[in-house]
């Protein structure tokens, strides 16, 4: 069956709303966050000189997650050495690594009482190991200070260096996440310094080692077709990936690549069904991001290894 036909059960309504200037669709609106919770979280992070991808990437779920006392820690600074055209993180010359950062992350996890911590980073092509050793130091510090906590790492591609991937995998994170971000046709436009096949190789290495769950994510609304998304799902399923997140691309600023379209919630539901038919656990909805509800995702994915239940109900997906 052609990939496009696999989505033919979606209603005959348009699959999307055109992107561009103007108001976003209703399904992308979020309630205002609790300002007191925001201030408490911001104070904790600044006190320990920490960054979060929630802030640096201008995540639309920041208010909700900070309000719940959760965050995705961004290590190795807040300046990236690459210039992906979708990403809100600053680009330029990265600073020296902070040797106290692993300790500070561990203490922040303790202060927040987190049971599941997500650690990601900017891409550090300037470092000989891409920052793999710093990931290891951070994971070890978090576990030493917070016994029983589960760890999810969301890593860059390490320029395809298998040894550096293995260094991180040797710590046996409960979740190893590396995002493919978009369909291969759009890489030259959206991720000119990355490579789709290289990202698949990183995921393949993690899935083969089986130290924990393997996860990836992609954005839609960049001009991809439904068939191309289906092909990506097939590619990662064939590698043995366990979990996939799919969310709407939102333009961080006028300097970033424009939104081609706002994909309707029912299309996300169709992507979820397509992925689940391939044996994947799929979390797909307009405001889904890689680390959104990560603890719940881990628990459900572990249970679903046998039963393959969806991460979220269709009703939940429409609300997120």
Task: Kindly describe this structure.
It is built from twelve helices and twelve strands. The strands form three sheets. Strands 2-3-6-7-8-9-10-12 form an eight-stranded mixed beta sheet, sandwiched between helices. The protein has helices at 35-47, 53-56, 62-67, 101-112, 132-145, 162-169, 187-190, 196-209, 226-239, 265-277, 294-307, 314-319, and strands at 16-18, 51-52, 72-75, 79-80, 90-91, 116-121, 150-154, 175-177, 213-220, 243-248, 261-263, 281-284. Strand 7 (150-154), helix 6 and strand 8 form a beta-alpha-beta unit. It starts with 15 loop residues before the first strand and ends with a helix. Mean pLDDT is 81; it is low at 8-13, 53-58 and 306-320.
Summarize this, please?
The protein is an alpha/beta fold. It is 38% helix and 15% strand. It has helices at 35-47, 53-56, 62-67, 101-112, 132-145, 162-169, 187-190, 196-209, 226-239, 265-277, 294-307, 314-319, and strands at 16-18, 51-52, 72-75, 79-80, 90-91, 116-121, 150-154, 175-177, 213-220, 243-248, 261-263, 281-284.
SS field, number of helical segments: 12
The CATH topology label is TIM Barrel
- Radius of gyration, CA atoms, in whole angstroms: 19 Å
Which spans have pLDDT < 50 for at least 5 consecutive residues?
8-13, 53-58, 306-320
Tell me, briefly, the overall form: globular
Biggest sheet, spatial arrangement of strands: 2-3-6-7-8-9-10-12
For the secondary structure, the number of strands is: 12
């Amino acid at each position: 069956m052609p990939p496009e036909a696999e989505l033919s059960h979606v209603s005959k309504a348009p699959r999307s709303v055109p992107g561009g200037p103007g108001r976003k669709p209703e399904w992308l609106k979020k309630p205002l966050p609790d300002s007191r919770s925001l201030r408490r979280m911001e104070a904790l992070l600044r006190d320990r000189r920490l960054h979060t991808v929630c802030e640096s990437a201008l995540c639309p779920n920041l208010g909700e997650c900070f309000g719940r006392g959760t965050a995705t820690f961004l290590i190795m600074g807040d300046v990236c050495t690459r210039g992906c055209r979708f990403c809100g993180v600053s680009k330029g010359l990265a600073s020296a690594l902070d040797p106290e950062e692993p300790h500070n992350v561990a203490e922040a996890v303790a202060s927040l009482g987190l049971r599941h911590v997500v650690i990601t980073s900017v891409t550090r092509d300037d470092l000989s190991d891409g920052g793999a050793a710093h990931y290891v130091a951070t994971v070890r510090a978090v576990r030493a200070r917070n016994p029983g906590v589960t760890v999810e790492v969301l890593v860059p591609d390490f320029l395809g260096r298998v040894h550096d991937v293995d260094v991180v995998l040797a710590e046996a994170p409960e979740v190893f996440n590396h995002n493919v971000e978009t369909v291969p046709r759009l890489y030259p436009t959206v991720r000119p310094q990355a490579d789709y096949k290289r990202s698949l190789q990183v995921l393949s290495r993690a899935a083969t080692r089986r130290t924990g769950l393997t996860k990836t994510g992609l954005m839609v609304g960049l001009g991809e077709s439904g068939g191309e998304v289906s092909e990506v799902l097939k590619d990662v399923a064939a590698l043995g990936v366990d979990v996939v997140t799919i969310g709407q691309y939102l333009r961080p600023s006028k300097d970033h690549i424009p939104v081609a379209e706002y994909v309707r919630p029912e299309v996300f539901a169709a992507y979820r069904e397509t992925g689940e038919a391939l044996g994947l656990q799929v979390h797909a909805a307009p405001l889904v991001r890689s680390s959104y509800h990560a603890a719940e995702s881990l628990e459900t994915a572990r249970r679903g290894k046998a039963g393959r239940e969806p991460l979220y109900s269709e009703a939940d997906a429409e609300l997120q």
